[in-house]
Amino acid sequence: MTGATAMSETPLPRTRAAPIYAVASGKGGVGKTWLSTMLSIAFGRAGHRSLLVDCDLGLANVDVQLGIRAQHDLASVIRGFHELNAAVTPVLGGPGRNGGFDLIAGRSGTGELGATKIEEVARIANALKLHDISAHYDRIILDLAAGIDPTVLRFARAADKMILVTNEEPTALTDAYAMIKVMRLQGSQIVPWVVVNQAENRMKGKKVFDQFALACNEYLGFKPKFAGAITRDPRVPDSIRAQTPLPIRHPQSQAYEDVIRVVETLNAG
Fold first, then answer.
1. Residue 205: pLDDT band by 50, 70, 90 thresholds?
2. Which domains, ranges and CATH numbers included, belong to the chain?
């Protein structure tokens, strides 16, 4: 099924642009890409048609985690070979199926997009807001690269909402704080939702958030919002190794139940 065909099956296109969520982290290795895919599935199961875009221009790996091969990807769009809607790959049956969503994959294993000019990033970011893309979805999720590279920040500025992923490690919290600080210095007024991943339990995850929020309030003058904590679950790395989404390989996993709570919080907020 081609991307154009997948989107043509949308029964009633939206009249307003779909909200864009940027999933970000200051530090790599905190589970940002995994969370992006889980959110896409959970939104789908909640009845929201979602598009996930792998915006890690240096080390894209959403398709690798999902065990799929995209016919076209973001590299072909940036090179001008295809439009965004032709680079769409349905996942788990695509939007409208139980947990299905659409994906615009990055280019894995080459790093060739790492030197993409900021003008090209701006073109892609702006195109995601156009009606011929956004009208077909209820949620657009951007899986950003880790860190504060200018291309990362440009994608982040295109979002309506930011989901900042961190964990209890001091380096992860410091880098998450640095990302928020840089965005504030550049004039962004977005108040991020924070997800504490790999927490020992939800109570301890909330404690980590409270400490982080206290630092943001004291030094940056605002408090981020708590989206939830995702508990450490050995079934997560198992599903990643198997290239099979967690709720399919382990339907009763605690980590996915926590993701569902995060989605409920985001939808309510």
1. very high
2. 15-268 (3.40.50.300)
Between the CA of residue 120 and those of 74, 103, 126, 127, 151, what are the distances in Å? 11, 19, 10, 11, 9
Say how many residues make up the chain. Answer: 269
Q: Which of the given ranges, 47-51, 121-125, 150-154, has the highest pLDDT on average?
A: 47-51
Dihedrals phi, psi of 205, to nearest 5 degrees? -65, -40
Specify the pTM: 0.91
Which two tokens mark 169?
């490690």
Q: What phi-psi label fits residue 225: left (phi over 0), alpha (psi between -120 and 50 degrees) or beta?
A: beta
Angle made by CA atoms 153, 74, 19, in degrees to the nearest 5: 55
Q: Read off φ and ψ for residue 160, nearest 5 degrees.
A: -85, -30
What whole-number distance in Å separates Cα of residue 219 and Cα of residue 225? 16
> What is the torsion angle, in degrees rounded to the nearest 10, for the CA atoms of residue 261, residue 265, residue 267 and residue 269?
180
